[in-house]
């Protein structure tokens, strides 16, 4: 039980860290204009609409990596229900990533692609992290 809790918390923390780290890399490579107010939703929407493709790719990659790592680490550390715990932990990161991408008002295809890639990362992380587990015991 303690390993499951530790695995979930550690997976969540590393998932959030990786999303934040890669997101900051995107901001360093492609910073917003210095005069832009980040609290202004219209200015942020315009910035999101005009982001370079490479900046969007880094953001999509960060969400994929974050869900993958969260699911993988929590599945790997857990003692029971590895796959299920990986899915739950990765799902929390997926919800956070989807919230971020949807509030930025990107093009709809970017939002759909981001959620799809996050789901793939979530599933792959949970599956690879629980490779030794055969039975899901609730």
Properties at a glance:
single chain, 5 helices, 138 residues, 77% helix, mainly alpha
SSE topology sketch:
Layout: H1 2-29, H2 41-49, H3 53-77, H4 82-103, H5 108-129
Q: Number of domains in the coordinates?
A: 1
Tally of DSSP β-strands: 0
Uncertain residue ranges: none
> What string gives the helices and strands in order?
HHHHH
Mean pLDDT: 85
Portion in helices: over 70%
Described by strand count, sense and barrel closure, the largest sheet is: none
Shape: elongated
Which value, in Å, is the CA radius of gyration?
16 Å
Share of residues in strands:
under 5%
Q: What is the first-to-last residue Cα distance?
A: 12 Å
Structural class: mainly alpha
- Please identify the oligomeric state: single chain
**Count of helical segments?**
5
Describe this structure in words.
This protein is mainly α. It has one domain. 77% of the residues lie in helices and 0% in strands. It is elongated and about 50 Å long.
Question: What is the structure about, briefly put?
Answer:
By secondary structure, the chain is mostly helical.
């Amino acid at each position: 039980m303690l390993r499951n809790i530790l695995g979930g918390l550690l997976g969540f923390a590393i998932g959030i860290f990786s999303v934040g780290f890669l997101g900051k890399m995107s901001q360093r490579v492609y910073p917003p204009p210095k005069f832009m107010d980040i609290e202004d939703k219209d200015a942020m929407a315009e910035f999101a609409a005009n982001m370079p493709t490479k900046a969007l790719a880094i953001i999509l990659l960060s969400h994929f990596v974050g869900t993958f790592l969260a699911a993988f680490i929590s599945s790997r550390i857990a003692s029971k229900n590895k796959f299920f715990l990986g899915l739950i932990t990765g799902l929390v990161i997926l919800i956070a990533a989807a919230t971020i991408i949807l509030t930025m008002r990107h093009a709809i295809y970017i939002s759909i692609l981001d959620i799809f890639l996050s789901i793939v990362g979530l599933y792959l992380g949970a599956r690879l992290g629980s490779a030794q587990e055969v039975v899901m015991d609730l």
